[in-house]
Amino acid sequence: MHLIFFDLDGTLLNDASEISAFTKDTLSLLRDKNILYTVATGRTMLSAQPIMDGHVFDLPQIYSNGVTVWDPQTHQLSLENLLNNTEISTIVDVVLTHGITPFVHVIGSNDQHYIFHTATHHDVEKGLVYRYFTNSKAKLLPLEELPVNSQVTNISMIGDNDAIHKMCLELNENENLIAYSGPAMEGKNFSWMDVHHRHANKGSAVINLKKQLGISEVICFGDSDNDLSMFASADESYAPENAKDSIKNAASAVIGHNHKDGVAYFLRERFSL
């Protein structure tokens, strides 16, 4: 039995960060053939679920690169490799030194999401707060109110390309941390960055779900560095045309562009949908 894992941004989603109508129909065709699928994304559960609303994803879903796994059937949330107090302080200190606002993502009791942050510094950060975070299900609080030993899944931020690049290099020198970054939708001068524990990765979460569900073969789709561990754990791995060259080189094959429903067209041919 196959189990398919989809990365979201740059892979299953188009350039408008949406699941297109054609891709939605393709997922329906997979269900008709009893072909299992789910998501494995670097996005937080809070960020991803509004995109997935209205689409059927019945199986456990991997968020924050494996830190969080949500089972929609049992409504259980599993957390692995959370950031400890020392690691949180290390990240926050680096980010504040570069004049960037850290957004600390916490899961509290009853799976309530919290985002603790310092004062915003520029319009892009303010836009992130007022256009997205305040309209989400998360509670926003000042960073100084972050309780000791909170369940911190990751710390995210957005800033100018140069600052993000420098922070990414610095934080990736820490043996306990891993940072990923990429171009922000807010403009070509800005990048996002997300930091979590180095032991958290999509590959480990994929292996765990494969065992849990008794799956014989795993197929995965992804476009960025955080997908490499998933590629290594899969029987087949595919990179869209828009993926980084290193990801294409690691994949079983390269498929169509994410904005041209590359994943959906491939699946229709691969499974004769």
Structure description:
- This protein is α/β, with parallel strands linked by helices.
- The protein has two domains: 2-80 and 200-270, HAD superfamily/HAD-like (Rossmann fold), CATH 3.40.50; 85-197, Hypothetical Protein, Haloacid Dehalogenase-like Hydrolase, Chain: A, domain 2 (2-Layer Sandwich).
- It contains ten helices and 14 strands.
- The chain has helices at residues 8-12, 21-32, 45-52, 85-97, 123-132, 161-171, 202-213, 228-233, 245-250, 262-270; strands at 2-6, 36-39, 61-63, 68-71, 76-79, 103-107, 113-117, 139-142, 152-160, 177-183, 190-197, 217-221, 236-240, 253-255.
- A six-stranded mixed β-sheet has the order 8-7-6-9-11-10, covered by helices on one side.
- A hairpin with a 4-residue loop joins strand 4 (68-71) and strand 5.
- Helix 2 (21-32) runs parallel beside helix 10 (262-270).
- The longest helix is centred in the middle third of the chain and has 13 residues, at 85-97.
- The relative contact order is 0.18.
- The mean pLDDT is 93.
